[in-house]
Amino acid sequence: MLNIDDGSGEDELIRLLLKRQSELNSLLEITRAINKNTATPILIQMLEVILQNYLQVGKLRFLIEKDNKFACIAKYGGDIESSVVLARACKKLSKVKAPTAIAGHRDPVLKKYNYFIPVYHKSKALAYALIGDFNTSGEMLNNDLNFIQTLMNVIIVALENKKLFRERLQSERFQREMELAVEVQNMLIPMREHKDDSVEIGAKYLPHQNIGGDYFDFIRLNDHEFLWCIADVSGKGISAALLMANFQASLHAWAAVDGDLTNIVDRLNKIVLSNTKGERFITLFIARYNQKKRRLNYINAGHNPTILYSEGGAIPLKLGTTMIGVFEDLPFLNEGEVDVEPGSLIFNYTDGLMDFESPSSKVWNEDKLLDFVLAHGELSPDNFNQALMDYLNNVHKSKPIDDITLLTLKIF
């Protein structure tokens, strides 16, 4: 009788050792797969194979937390429930932190399974598992349940590391894109402000973040004519910067061969539409000034109206068309023309100037801006730009929420 017991104990020990060896081999296989950055579906498939073949688990539901919801990522055996139904049932066991028998549970979903296995990190539930058709008992039961919990812990950590790695790559990719966009935009923004006997120019560019869609340019066409443009492309990042680079090249090319602003804007519209397929647009104000005739021709394409200050009065320059890059043929296109007196100031800006957060009840709008121009129109371009920003920062006490570009000209 004693010999029989000794034989049974030895057989049980051998069976336990073999089982532990299988468990270690399973963990090793999973670890190797994780180290090779194996795709998530393959890891889940390996988990299912281990549970089915090594541990004889006949039914599995494995739910993981994602964006404060639980999704079922592994399931086999029996009638498959929806993730919503399974998550709702598992939340009834939210206070359970260790593998627990649930065969007699009152919930109609839970009672179909033998055990509930939770995976927690501190007080946060990371995953729930329901296993059924699992007949292991005795000393092997706790060992198997703990092994299943360990295996799922390893899978959860691997998935979380994959997520963090993807987020880091995305962050690095975004940062590099922003750096490239900044480089592109720095090449677009004129490095030197222009001043000669006929015109003085002052410009100020204040990006809200690393990169925006603002752009301005000044082109001396000949001895008695010059052209300038201020624009804002929709969107941010490298794609917006590249679109603006293409826009700048197109503007310079057509301004050199065509003296008609209407033709230039019409061609720019077609170029932008062709490049973006209508997914982006550009607002702009473009003007051409003839020093001999003292005549300014301009087109406002959906942009904030440039303000002309002259002899104590100020008017917004609104004639033009809609934004470019939206319609194949612009629905209307009107060119404005105005005579410019000596000492006139022309103030151009992008919409970021009007997008300020104010802690006070003070109103900031185009009427208030017009009043400011009337009060400060005799200043030089640089002094005007600085006075405006000082007013917004110190008097109005507002904070910008978008990129700001100021382009101010003084005509002599």
Automatic annotation (TrEMBL):
Domain of life: Bacteria
SUPFAM superfamilies xref list: GAF domain-like, PP2C-like
Domain PPM-type phosphatase span(s) in chain numbering: 196-411
Gene3D superfamilies: PPM-type phosphatase domain
Keyword field: Hydrolase
Entry's transmembrane regions: none
Gene Ontology molecular function, alphabetical: phosphatase activity
UniProt keyword annotation of Hydrolase present: yes
Matching PANTHER family: STAGE II SPORULATION PROTEIN E (PTHR43156:SF2), STAGE II SPORULATION PROTEIN E-RELATED (PTHR43156)
Protein name: Sigma-B regulation protein RsbU (Phosphoserine phosphatase)
Organism (species): Mucilaginibacter gossypiicola
